[in-house]
UniProtKB/TrEMBL annotation:
Residues bearing PTM 4-aspartylphosphate: 55
Keywords linked to the UniProt accession: DNA-binding, Phosphoprotein, Transcription, Transcription regulation
Source organism: Paenibacillus allorhizosphaerae
Domain of life where this protein originates: Bacteria
InterPro entries: HTH_AraC, HTH_AraC-typ_CS, Sig_transdc_resp-reg_receiver
Gene it is expressed from: rhaR_9
The name this protein goes by in its record: HTH-type transcriptional activator RhaR
PANTHER family xref list: ARAC-FAMILY TRANSCRIPTIONAL REGULATOR, HTH-TYPE TRANSCRIPTIONAL REGULATOR EXSA
Occurrences of domain HTH araC/xylS-type (ranges): 392-490
Domain (Response regulatory) ranges: 3-120
Length: 492
C-alpha cells in the first residue's frame, strides 16, 4: 500500500476525496489529513507519505511553498495538486517543481482521480526501485557477509557503512524481512510490491537477495510492514520477521531462513512469522560426512543401482531428520550430481533443475533420476578397446576403482597374469606403464573436480586416490606443470 496525506483547508473537499475514491482497491491508504502546508510539513516528517495530495491556495503555507520546503528538507514524496480554474499558473509552477499531476477541484470525477492515481502508482514504483538501486552495492555486501556468517553458524552484528563518515548510516534504523521459496518462478521486486506487504514511505529502500530458488526481501525504514498484506496474491511459501532494529538484522534473517527450511521439509504454503525458538535445527555449515558420500559414489561406480538407491534414500531421510538447511541440501545434491556425471562421462544436470526444487523429497527424486541416467551411460563401454580381453578388464577396473589403492601386483592378480608379463603387455597395448595410466586417470578426475566443484584441494586428492595431500600436489604438478590451486584459479 502507498501512503497518502490529504492537505486541504476545506474539510468538505477532503471528505469528498475520501468518499469518491476506492483507495485500497487502487493500492493506496490515507495516513493523515492536514488543513494547511505548515501542518502538512510536520506530518510529512512524522509519517513519510509516498503521495501528498494538496490544495495550492491555503492559509499559513500554500501548496507551492509546501513542495519547496519538502524538497529542501529531503522529503521525496510525490505531489498531486488540487487547483481551481483561475489558479492554473500555480499548477504550472507546481509541475515545474516536479508535481506528478494536478486535478481541477470544480470538475473532479472518479475516473479522473483513478487515472491520476494509476499514473502516480507507476511513478512511485519506479522511484522506489531507482532509490533502492542507487544504494544497492553497500547493502549487497552487507547481505553477503550476513549470509556467510549464518552459513558458518556465527550470527553476529554487521555494521552498515554507506560512506566513509557513516553519514547515511543512521538513516537506516529499522528493517522488515520476508523470504520466499519460489523455486523456478521468476521473482521481481515489482511483484513483491504488488503483494501489498509494505507501505514504503518516501524514505524507504527495498532490496532482494536470492540464492538457490529462494529470495529474501529487505524493506528499510517502511512506514508499516506486513500490515496490508494480501495473502491471496502470494503464490509461494513465505516467512517474515516483523520490523526489527538494524542491529537485529542478522539474527532475524537467520530465524527467517531456519523457519523457511520447515516449508522445505513439511510443505506448508502459507505466509508465516519466523519462529524465534530453540527448535532443533542444524547449522547451515553442516554437510554430509565424506564417508557417506563415498559410499554413494562407490555403489554407483560398482554398478550397484539398488544399493545406490537405498543408500541415497537413507541419507536423504537423515538430512530431513536432522533438518539440514535447504541451501546445504541443494549444494549437496549438485555436488553429487557433478561427481557422478564426471565418473560416467555424461553432461551434468542443469543447476537450475536442482535449485528450482521447492521440496526435500522432490530434490531427492531429481537426484535419483539423474543418477540413473548417468548409470545407463556408465554401463556403456567408453574406453577404447585394446583388443586384449585381460587388458580391457584391467582398464575397466581402473576406471571404476581409481580412488582405491592399486598396485601392479593386485591388478595382475585380477587378470591372473604374471606381474612382469602383464606389465610389459599393458605398456605394449596402451603405450604407458600401468602406474602412469592410473595417475593419468586420477589426475584427469582431479582436474574435473577442481573445475566443477568447490571441494578443498586435500579432499579432492583423497577422493581420487591420493590420501597424502603433498603427494597429490607433487603428482599433479608433474602431469600438469602447475599446482591444483593454480589450476583452479586459472580456470576461473
Amino acid at each position: 500500500m502507498w501512503n497518502v496525506l490529504l492537505v486541504e483547508d476545506e474539510a468538505f473537499v477532503r471528505r469528498s476525496l475520501k468518499q469518491l475514491v476506492p483507495w485500497e482497491a487502487m493500492g493506496f491508504t490515507i495516513v493523515g489529513e492536514a488543513g494547511d502546508g505548515q501542518e502538512a510539513l510536520a506530518m510529512m516528517h512524522a509519517c513519510s507519505p509516498d503521495l501528498v495530495i494538496t490544495d495550492i491556495v491555503m492559509p499559513v503555507m500554500d501548496g507551492i511553498e509546501l513542495m519547496k520546503r519538502a524538497k529542501e528538507e529531503g522529503l521525496e514524496s510525490a505531489f498531486v495538486m488540487l487547483t481551481c480554474m483561475n489558479e492554473f499558473e500555480y499548477a504550472r509552477q507546481a509541475l515545474e517543481l516536479g508535481a506528478s499531476a494536478y486535478l481541477l477541484k470544480l470538475s473532479m470525477n472518479v475516473q479522473a482521480i483513478e487515472d491520476t492515481l494509476s499514473k502516480v502508482r507507476r511513478e512511485l514504483v519506479r522511484d522506489l526501485l531507482m532509490r533502492s538501486q542507487s544504494l544497492q552495492q553497500p547493502f549487497q555486501q552487507l547481505y553477503r557477509d550476513i549470509w556467510q556468517s549464518i552459513g558458518e553458524g556465527e550470527i553476529a552484528d554487521h555494521r552498515l557503512q554507506i560512506d566513509e563518515e557513516g553519514g547515511l548510516d543512521d538513516r537506516f534504523q529499522s528493517v522488515g524481512i520476508v523470504s520466499f521459496l519460489h523455486g523456478p518462478d521468476r521473482f521481481t521486486l515489482e511483484k513483491f510490491i504488488e503483494f501489498g506487504m509494505v507501505s514504503p514511505g518516501c524514505r524507504s529502500v527495498v532490496h532482494a537477495y536470492s540464492h538457490f530458488g529462494q529470495t529474501t526481501v529487505f524493506v528499510w525504514n517502511p512506514v508499516s510492514f506486513l500490515v496490508h498484506a494480501n495473502h491471496n496474491k502470494i503464490p509461494w511459501p513465505a516467512v517474515y520477521a516483523p520490523l526489527v532494529k538494524r542491529s537485529e538484522l542478522a539474527a532475524a534473517w537467520g530465524h527467517v531462513l531456519r523457519t523457511l527450511d520447515r516449508n522445505w521439509y513439511e510443505g506448508t504454503t502459507s505466509l508465516i512469522q519466523a519462529a524465534d525458538t530453540t527448535d532443533k535445527v542444524t547449522s547451515a555449515s553442516a554437510s554430509l560426512r565424506w564417508d557417506t558420500e563415498r559410499e554413494w559414489i562407490q555403489s554407483f561406480e560398482q554398478h550397484k543401482p539398488d544399493d545406490f538407491r537405498s543408500r541415497l534414500q537413507v541419507g536423504w531421510k537423515d538430512m530431513a531428520d536432522r533438518r539440514f538447511p535447504m541451501a546445504v541440501v541443494k549444494e549437496t545434491a549438485l555436488r553429487i550430481d557433478r561427481i557422478l556425471a564426471l565418473i560416467s562421462g555424461g553432461s551434468g544436470t542443469p543447476e537450475e533443475d536442482y535449485t528450482s526444487c521447492v521440496r526435500h523429497e522432490e530434490l531427492g527424486l531429481r537426484l535419483l533420476s539423474s543418477a540413473e541416467r548417468y548409470a545407463n551411460k556408465y554401463g556403456e563401454d567408453n574406453e577404447s578397446l585394446t583388443g586384449h580381453p585381460e587388458i580391457d578388464k584391467a582398464l575397466a577396473h581402473i576406471r571404476r576403482h581409481y580412488h582405491e589403492d592399486m598396485t601392479l601386483k593386485s591388478i595382475a592378480a585380477l587378470v591372473a597374469m604374471d606381474e612382469a608379463y602383464f606389465s610389459a603387455l599393458f605398456k605394449r597395448k596402451t603405450g604407458v606403464t600401468l602406474m602412469h595410466h592410473i595417475q593419468q586417470v586420477r589426475i584427469g578426475m582431479a582436474k574435473k573436480l577442481l573445475e566443477q566443484t568447490k571441494l578443498p584441494v586435500a579432499e579432492i586428492g583423497d577422493r581420487v586416490g591420493f590420501p597424502n595431500a603433498n603427494y597429490f600436489i607433487k603428482i599433479f604438478r608433474r602431469w600438469t606443470g602447475t599446482t591444483p590451486s593454480e589450476y583452479r584459479s586459472r580456470g576461473n
